[in-house]
Amino acid sequence: MKILTPFPVTDSTLTSINITEDDYAEWDQSTSYDRGDFVISTATHTVYRSLTDSNLDNDPDVEVAALADPLIDDPDPVNWQVISATNRWKLFDQKPSRLATNSGSIEIELTPEVFIGGVAGFGLSADDVRVEVYADAEKIYDRSEDLLDESAVTDWLAYFTEPYRPLTEFVFSDLPVLAIPRIVVTLTSTSTVSAGQIIFGRLDEMGVATQDTRFSGLDYSYVEVDEYGDLTSVQRPATRLFDINTVVPRENLFSIVQIFNRLRGGIPAVWIADENSRIAAIGYGFYRGYREVYLGPDHAEIAIEVQGVV
After folding, report:
1. Would you put residue 54 in left (φ > 0), alpha (ψ -120 to 50) or beta?
2. CATH 2.40.30 in the chain, residue ranges
3. In Å, how far are 206, 249, 271 from 254, measured between CA atoms?
4. Nearest 5 degrees, angle CA 139-CA 141-CA 144?
5. What b-and-e string marks burial along 139-163, b requiring 16 or more CB atoms within 10 Å of the CB?
6. How confident is the model at residue 166, as a pLDDT?
7. Which of 218, 302, 307 is nearest to 266 (CA)?
8. Tell me, what DSSP letter sits at residue 27?
9. Are the C-beta atoms of 159 and 141 separated by less than 8 Å?
10. CATH 2.60.120.260 segments of the chain
């Protein structure tokens, strides 16, 4: 059982990315916007929609920052509505259901200036993923993974009749120890590549996940039935809930509790019960609580409740 705590990606650490930041025109002080017009801010990497006509000289970044002031009693937007991160920065916005897209490939180069123990991806639509790590100009790590699940193809009949199921997530937890690494992540496809999150971070080993670790689904969609029995279905994102049980040495309990303290307040992390993507034991979410039980003089069991984020 491992936890990957995300490293915040910023303009200074994102060395290169092949997704352009041109979703819409940049907000311009001298332009009057109509209700429903979209703009972007490359300073905050945000897409905004105008809520008013004749919307002139109202900086959306300034308005949104003012709404975060705790002294404002009713912080409702007046001129601008936040829609999402820009296409480029959806990869790092902690919302895996909002996908960044690019034709043919997504390539990210990160220079974090701290040790990065693992890389993970969620909400993926690609043929394969490749992670390379460089020490200056020397490549010291190069690992690839096919993102097509062929486990159902067990014979020639299945080869022609069973579909290839895409793998939508991955995690590599064996990156080399470097103080200042340069990491390149590449997703490729013969068509459009999409990704919900690419996560770099510190890796902490907890213990061994037990056989009674459980996973369940949480769907935010809903169905309404009217008086005639007709159904109205609204599709919304879905996620998973994780009940992870792991056995750890009792002498490690204090350090593990410190990990939980760092993740308080709904900070999402990658929870790795097993690194094999095909058995669906990887999750991106926040912990809702944990419970420790001593099993004897040397070991304890920690039960962790994790809710996936959308």
Report:
1. left
2. 208-308
3. 11, 10, 19
4. 120
5. eebeeeeebeeeeebeeeeeeeeee
6. 85
7. 307
8. P
9. no
10. 2-19+91-205
pLDDT score, position 21: 97
Q: Which residues of the chain have pLDDT under 50?
A: none
The DSSP bridge partners found for residue 121 are 170, 198
The correct CATH number of 2-19+91-205 out of 3.30.930.10, 2.60.40.2470, 3.40.605.10, 2.60.120.260 is 2.60.120.260
Nearest to 187 by CA among 178, 175, 195: 195
CATH number (3.20.16, 3.30.460, 2.60.40, 2.40.30) of 208-308 reads 2.40.30
Residue 283 pLDDT: 92
E strand or H helix that includes residue 64 = helix 60-67
Q: Are 151 and 164 in contact (CB under 8 A)?
A: no
**Alpha-helical regions (H) of 117-272:** 156-161, 253-262
pLDDT computed for residue 284 by the predictor: 95
Cα 64 from Cα 58, distance rounded (Å): 11
Which pairing describes strands 80-85 and 282-294: parallel, antiparallel, or unpaired?
unpaired
Decide: 100 and 18 in contact? Cβ < 8 Å: no
Scan for tokens 């990704």, then name that residue: 195
Please tell me the predicted confidence (pLDDT) of residue 165: 74
Do residues 288 and 306 make contact, with C-beta atoms less than 8 angstroms apart? yes
The CA–CA distances, whole Å, from 67 to 24, 81, 83, 178, 214 equal: 23, 11, 15, 41, 40
* pLDDT at residue 153, rounded to an integer: 59
The 3 state secondary structure assigned to 85-132 is ECCHHHHHCCCCCCCEEEEEEEEEEECCCCCCCEEEEECCECCEEEEE
Which residues in 66-89 are b (16+ Cβ under 10 Å) and which e? eeeeeeeeeeebebbeebebbbbb
Structure tokens at 21: 């930041």
Integer Cα distance of 185 and 132 in angstroms: 7
